[in-house]
């Protein structure tokens, strides 16, 4: 008997694409991406796909975009949590965190290295900012690859890393069509830390535009390893990365990949509900109208 995904789900990673701002990767790495995805589009998506809650993640480091993000929940038809993008070592970051945390919809902040080639390092002022996040009960979301292993391991040795709740974005960005050895090692290492969560979003194919489009089965190895490491510990959450993921698949196709994988793994309904609803509620707090 084929296993169905829950009729109602929480998506822990959606983006707003506002035509008032310039997104450097649109038109280059994501040539097929629409130039606009606003609150009304998210409302339509929620109605079509059974979303009962969302986490909206800010794409750009721009205070104007942050201000718009802060006002977004009032325009949505479903509950939302917000993850503004913050450079942790930027001047005035402590005041910025204090300011955005006054918005009850803010669940945390996300930090990205300038490039994926540079060494990832959090020290000095950045550690002070992370300590402030921890003290205010905010999540730190990181967008990293396994190539940042050295800096990430060094950070995990700090006291503050054990105080803050961490959410790794985009499955730690595995090279699905390449060698997964280092990625698997890093995922297993991270999963041993009880304060680290994994967001299983589908940005991955857009990072490799020169390669063939992926088939559903191409994801199974990554999802299965992530499930064994994080999912069975109830610290893995569904995340679509829409509309960015729309360059490779429709929302319905993304859900189909999950459905095929879940049947491949033989997940039970309770495990599926945790992955698509319950774990998100534990990570981000109440995110649905019925308090799921």
Please give a handful of descriptors for the protein shown:
about 290 residues; alpha/beta; TIM Barrel; 5-stranded parallel sheet; 3-stranded parallel sheet; about 35% helix
Please outline the helices and strands.
Elements (H helix, E strand, L loop, with lengths): L8 E6 L24 H11 L1 E7 L5 H9 L8 E4 L9 H8 L7 E4 L13 H11 L3 E4 L6 H8 L8 E4 L12 H11 L4 E5 L19 H10 L6 E3 L12 H15 L3 H16 L8
Parallel strand pairs: 1-2, 2-3, 4-5, 5-6, 6-7, 7-8
Helix pairs in contact: 6-7
Q: What do you see in this structure?
A:
It is a single chain. By secondary structure, the chain is an alpha/beta fold. The chain has one domain (9-284): Alpha-Beta Barrel (TIM Barrel), CATH 3.20.20.140. The chain has helices spanning 39-49, 63-71, 93-100, 125-135, 149-156, 181-191, 220-229, 251-265, 269-284, and strands at 9-14, 51-57, 80-83, 108-111, 139-142, 165-168, 196-200, 236-238. The strands form two sheets. The chain has a five-stranded parallel sheet. Strands 1-2-3 form a three-stranded parallel sheet, sandwiched between helices. Helix 6 runs parallel beside helix 7 (220-229). The longest helix is centred in the C-terminal third of the chain and has 16 residues, at 269-284. It is globular, with a radius of gyration of 18 Å.
